[in-house]
Structure formats: C-alpha cells, structure tokens
Amino acid sequence: MTPIQYVLREQRLIWFFIGIAIPVILFNLIIPSSPPDAFHSAELTHVPRRVTLELHGSGRVPLSLKAKNLRVVVTGGAGFVGSHLVDRLLERGDSVIVVDNFFTGQKENLVHHFQNPRFELIRHDVVEPILLEVDQIYHLACPASPVHYKFNPVKTIISFFNVFYKTNVMGTLNMLGLAKRVGARFLLTSTSEVYGDPLQHPQAESYWGNVNPIGVRSCYDEGKRTAETLSMDYHRGLNLEVRIARIFNTYGPRMCLDDGRVVSNFVAQALRKEPLTVYGDGKQTRSFQYVSDLVEGLMRLMEGEHVGPFNLGNPGEFTMLELAKVVQETIDPNAKIEFRPNTEDDPHKRKPDISKAKDLLGWEPKVALREGLPRMVSDFRQRLFGDEKESVGTNVSLA
C-alpha cells in the first residue's frame, strides 16, 4: 500500500476537517469583513420607518418630518372623512393603501388619486383578516349614518345590526391583529355616540356616558364602545401603540347626499326646494366641525405620544332650529321648516369639551359653520345639478 493510499483510506477524518477548513479560509480571504454597524443597520431596515426616525432623532420629531415616507392604511378610505384624510396623507408624501368594501364609500371620492403610484385601493371587508406591511393604521371603517341603523322591518334591523357590530368588533379585532403583527401604530375613530344621551354637558373624555343598550341606535353606540375596549386591551395587554379619537358631528364636501345626518339633510332639502325637516321642538343641540379640522386632529393624534381618548369636535353649539336658519341664509331664505315627531333616543345635547386636545395635541377647530357650510353647499349643488359654475368652493384646500 502506497503512502497516498494509506492516507486516503485510513485518515479520512483528517481529510474531512481539511475539506471544511479550505472553504472557510477562502471565504475570509475573498469576502471583506462587514463594518461594525452593518448588522445594526440591517436590523433597522425591518423597523417601521416612523420608529427609525424616532430612534435617530432627539426628542419629538416635527409632524411634517415624521410623516415622510410612511406606508399607511386607511380602512373606510373611500368614505367622506376617509377620502379627505387620504388627500392629506398623500399630499405630505406618504404611501397610502385604502381598504374599503364600498358599503357606503364611493370610488368617486378617490378617482383623482388613481394615477398616483403611491396610492393603492383594495376592495375588502375588514370583518375578514388581511395582511399588509404598513407603519400606521387609521381605522375608519364603519357606516356611521343614522339611515343605516334605523331601518324597518325587523329583518332589516337584524341585517344592519350585523353589519355595524361585525364591522366595529370583528373589523377592529382584525385591524388590531394586523397592527400587532407588523408593529404598526393603530388609530381608532370612535364617536361622540359613546356618550349616548349625556347627563354631563359639555362632554369630557372622563364621562362614561348614558347609553341605552337596547335602543334602535345601540348597535352603533355599543359597537363603538366595544371597539374602544378592544383597543385599550391590546394597548395594555400587548403593548400595542394605540390612539383613540371620539369624533363629533362633521360636515363638508363628499358627504352622502341622503345619509340621514342633519347637515346633509338640510342642505339637500333646501337645494331641492323641499321643506327642512326638524324633529321634535328643534331645541336639541349639536356641534359641527368642518372636515379639514377633523383630519388635522386625527393626524396630530396619530403622530403624538398620547393614547386618548380625545374628543375631536367643534364646541360651537347650535340648536336644530338655529342650524336650519343658517342653511336658509346660505341657500334659500324662503325655504320652509317642517316639524316632525322626534326619533327614539335622540340625544338632547351634544357638545365636546376639547380642553384635552388643546393641551396635549395643540389642536382646535379653525373653520366656523358659516364659513364651511358654503363649501359643502357648492359640492352638493354640483352633484345634484351639475352646475360647475357654482362648484368653485368644492375642491378647497384642506391644509
């Protein structure tokens, strides 16, 4: 047996280690070592961009800087408020994914973004799970019109109860689950309806409300209260970044023409030369904020460091009769007012205490009713009659 044959046959273990050592040596000689911060930098690429900004910054990052290059999902983004929020997010440079089942949303509200490469639209119902890679989630999905929760007969009530409650509960659970999986910040748009027919006036966030759990409005009221509970449970139990906004009456361009809300009712009726229908004695009060004010409040809340809940509304208080007269002044001084029996569980007073939003978010509404209403009227007139000359105020800036 030659020496070479002996080594190959009897010393196989030595050759095994030599075979491992040769590629290791070659690998270290050919491929340069990584810089010390390479691994750290690689890890940061998987951290949401908003968090990366905060890690490398000192203190709070300005809203305009922090909002750059975020990937944001807006559920219900084809709706009235959602579409205006999408406008602002795209305007500041974000990439936006709208998730909407078009139950009440309209593609027409977003058509001006269809050619924007940073905009995506997905037809999807949030009661079913969805997986997206995003930094922030604005959860607006929920039909909020009284028309949709006060139908007859009983079969229809049950149907719409399922829509409202499933959207508020299952939809919120699915979006919270998505936020947890991808490390996104989650904002829930709740409502002033959580206060029910309030015994406290104005309503502060510390007030627990006076809600009828078996009333015709309860599927909406209780659904939103449950959504708030789920959001806080995820925040406390799973350390999820959560923000909660309680939205008061909002109006502006792109509202549904016949959604049953008082401002859109009055405006559509006056334009159609129909009587303005006032329920009860007309002494019930509401507070009305223009949509651009609400969008600014939502964005400040999302980018801030406070969970909430925060009241977002205009503390200017109007009775229904006063609102009807403002609509008369704006559209038709000869419009008639017609009184009808009041609806069940209609709150007598509704006015937000926004002290918390002022102090912690630096936010308060800027647009008065008599300033914002003509813009909404122009939009309604154009959609009802196609009068482009009268629609100059429709596409106003929301900045």
UniProtKB/TrEMBL annotation:
The chain crosses the membrane at residues 12-31. Its main location: Golgi. Its EC number is 4.1.1.35. It comes from the Eukaryota. InterPro entries: NAD(P)-bd_dom, NAD(P)-bd_dom_sf, UXS-like. GO terms for biological process: D-xylose metabolic process. Its cofactor is NAD(+). One of its GO terms (molecular function) is NAD+ binding. Pathway: Nucleotide-sugar biosynthesis; UDP-alpha-D-xylose biosynthesis; UDP-alpha-D-xylose from UDP-alpha-D-glucuronate: step 1/1. Belongs to the NAD(P)-dependent epimerase/dehydratase family. UDP-glucuronic acid decarboxylase subfamily. Catalyzes the NAD-dependent decarboxylation of UDP-glucuronic acid to UDP-xylose. Necessary for the biosynthesis of the core tetrasaccharide in glycosaminoglycan biosynthesis. Keywords: Decarboxylase, Golgi apparatus, Lyase, Membrane, NAD, Transmembrane, Transmembrane helix. It is a single-pass type II membrane protein. Residues 74-376 form the NAD(P)-binding domain. It is an enzyme of class 4 (lyase). Signal peptide: none annotated. One of its GO terms (cellular component) is Golgi cisterna membrane. SUPFAM superfamilies: NAD(P)-binding Rossmann-fold domains. This is UDP-glucuronate decarboxylase. It comes from Daucus carota subsp. sativus. It holds the Pfam family GDP_Man_Dehyd. It is found in: Golgi apparatus, Golgi stack membrane.
